[in-house]
């Protein structure tokens, strides 16, 4: 029906000619016919003006009725924009199917009418992409949008559709790096907005990442996972230099991907420099693990051991730390401590068996190369407790303890400053007090260790006090 409505408008010239011929045959003068046509055009212009005014004032339901009246009663003088405005008002009322049919009819007759292409794509976006019902429908609608419109057209949903597809793939359990990389290839970064978005939520303004930042976020992760390490390094470096503001710690993750890429290319010095910087701002165990692996590759075994031990003692799921425990075993073998190495191997082996997971090449090689005898049965909880005690002892034995006193407690009740015996001052958090934090007071004597930290206010690395004990 929509197609028929549109066709009548496009055959306007023929319709007018037919009316003239009919008028002549019936004895009505051309003059009278032209008067009728003139009156018809005046009435059409008045209706258009009224409908356009309603549309501009967002009164879409009322505007729809008038546009329909225009098409029904003045089809011989309707143009592309009459039908487009009609479809636009339908779309604004979420009548996406009806609006789509009108756009399709327009495009069948005038395939180069870009506004109709864009409007059809927006209908697809709102009905099947933004409000995703099924993956197949979502991907099919996305393909249509990307085929019909262009990123260069700022009125099209091309760019936002690519980002919706990227977000869809990002949350897949089996991360599809190749597909994500292919999607980012469909975007020209030069055409992306580099300014952050700002939205209001619960009367609070929230700032979100720009299109360009999101592009680099998706692309660099995909490049890393695809093993395109040199390209990943270059694009991470480009992102760090071209973006003025970062969100979701993306500046850290760009440096993280660079470090992992350098490591994969056996450029351990470059990798570890980036990791040291990251470790001052992020306290995740896996960052320390990567530092340990880099040091181990450089035969800095003692340093590697300490970072691996610290990583083991950081918070994190045990099932995700299994390769870390095997790294510790590997290092302990290098340090001629096969007894403790086997304890780590034993734990990982039984943990994997309990979880019904494959033991894996790394574990099997450690067992066979060192003639480890795996125990028939193992109390995993007890074994893990013993490993924690071992790591704690190692860390304590290799860390230098300093003396000082509580110089100042901050009003937030969560932190303060310690002055060491050499006069230097160190920031600390009360959660790092290992004994009796409730009775903490200024001038109280303490012993402590020093670790790398990050001063968020000054935006630079710093030294902080940890493992604090009161006297």
Through-space gap between termini: 88 Å
In terms of per-residue confidence, which ranges show pLDDT below 50 for 5 or more consecutive residues? 3-17, 31-36
Largest sheet: 5 strands, antiparallel
Structural class: alpha+beta
Compressed to H and E, one letter per element, the order equals HHHHHHHHHHEEHHHHHHHHHHEEEEE
Strand order of the largest sheet: 5-4-3-6-7
Number of helices: 20
What attributes characterize this protein structure?
471 residues, 60% helix, alpha+beta, OB fold (Dihydrolipoamide Acetyltransferase, E2P), NA-bd_OB-fold, 5-stranded antiparallel β-sheet
Sum this structure up briefly.
This protein has 471 residues and is of the alpha+beta class. Among the domains are: 210-282; 285-398; 402-470, OB fold (Dihydrolipoamide Acetyltransferase, E2P) (Beta Barrel). The protein is built from 20 helices and seven strands.
Can you offer a commentary on this structure?
A hairpin with a 2-residue loop joins strand 1 and strand 2. With 471 residues, this protein is α+β, with helices and mostly antiparallel strands. Helix content is 60%, strand content 11%. The strands form two sheets. Strands 5-4-3-6-7 form a five-stranded antiparallel sheet, with no helix packed on it. The chain has a two-stranded antiparallel sheet with strand order 1-2. It is built from 20 helices and seven strands. The protein has helices spanning 2-10, 12-25, 30-56, 60-73, 80-92, 96-109, 114-129, 135-148, 158-170, 177-184, 211-225, 229-242, 250-264, 268-279, 285-297, 301-313, 322-334, 338-354, 361-369, 380-398; strands spanning 197-201, 204-208, 402-409, 415-420, 425-429, 445-455, 460-470. InterPro entries: NA-bd_OB-fold, TPR-like_helical_dom_sf. Keywords: Coiled coil, DNA-binding. GO terms for molecular function: DNA binding.
């Amino acid at each position: 029906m929509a197609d028929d409505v549109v066709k009548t408008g496009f055959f306007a010239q023929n319709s007018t000619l037919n009316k003239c011929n009919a008028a002549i045959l019936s004895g009505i003068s051309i003059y009278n016919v032209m008067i009728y046509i003139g009156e018809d055009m005046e009435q059409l212009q008045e209706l258009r003006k009224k409908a356009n005014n309603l549309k501009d004032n967002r009164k879409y339901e009322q505007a729809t009725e008038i546009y329909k009246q225009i098409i029904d009663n003045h089809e011989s003088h309707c143009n592309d924009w009459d039908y487009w405005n009609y479809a636009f008002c339908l779309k604004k009322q979420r009548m996406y199917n009806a609006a789509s049919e009108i756009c399709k009819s327009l495009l069948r007759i005038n395939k180069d009418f870009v506004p109709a292409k864009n409007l059809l794509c927006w209908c697809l976006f709102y009905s099947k992409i933004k409000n995703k019902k099924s993956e197949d429908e979502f991907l099919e609608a996305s393909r249509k949008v990307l085929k019909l419109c262009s990123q260069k057209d700022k009125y099209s949903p091309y760019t936002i559709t690519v980002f919706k597809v990227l977000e869809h793939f990002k949350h897949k359990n089996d991360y599809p790096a190749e597909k994500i990389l292919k999607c980012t290839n469909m975007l020209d970064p030069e055409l992306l907005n580099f300014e952050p978005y700002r939205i209001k939520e619960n009367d609070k303004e929230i700032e979100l990442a720009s299109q360009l930042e999101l592009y680099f976020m998706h692309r660099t992760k995909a490049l890393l996972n695809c093993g395109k390490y040199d390209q990943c390094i270059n694009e991470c470096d480009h992102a760090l230099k071209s973006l003025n503001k970062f969100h979701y710690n993306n500046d850290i993750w760009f440096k993280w991907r660079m470090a992992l890429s350098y490591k994969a290319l056996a450029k351990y010095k470059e990798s570890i420099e980036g990791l040291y910087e990251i470790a001052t701002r992020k306290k995740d165990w896996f960052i320390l693990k990567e530092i340990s692996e880099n040091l181990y590759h450089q035969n800095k075994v003692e340093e590697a051991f300490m970072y691996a031990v610290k990583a083991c003692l950081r918070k994190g799921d045990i099932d995700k730390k299994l390769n870390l425990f095997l790294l510790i075993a590997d290092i302990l073998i290098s340090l001629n401590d096969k007894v403790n190495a086997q304890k780590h191997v034993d734990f990982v082996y039984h943990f994997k068996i309990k979880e019904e997971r494959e033991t894996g090449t790394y574990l099997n090689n450690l067992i066979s190369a060192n003639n480890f005898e795996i125990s028939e049965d193992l109390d995993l909880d007890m074994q893990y407790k013993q490993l924690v005690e071992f790591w704690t002892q190692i860390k304590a034995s290799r860390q230098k303890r300093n003396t000082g006193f509580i110089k100042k407690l901050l009003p937030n009740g969560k932190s303060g400053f310690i002055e060491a015996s050499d006069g230097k001052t160190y920031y600390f958090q009360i959660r790092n007090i290992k004994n009796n934090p409730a009775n903490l007071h200024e001038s109280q004597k303490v012993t402590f260790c020093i670790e790398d930290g990050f001063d968020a206010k000054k935006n630079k690395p710093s030294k902080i006090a940890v493992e604090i004990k009161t006297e």
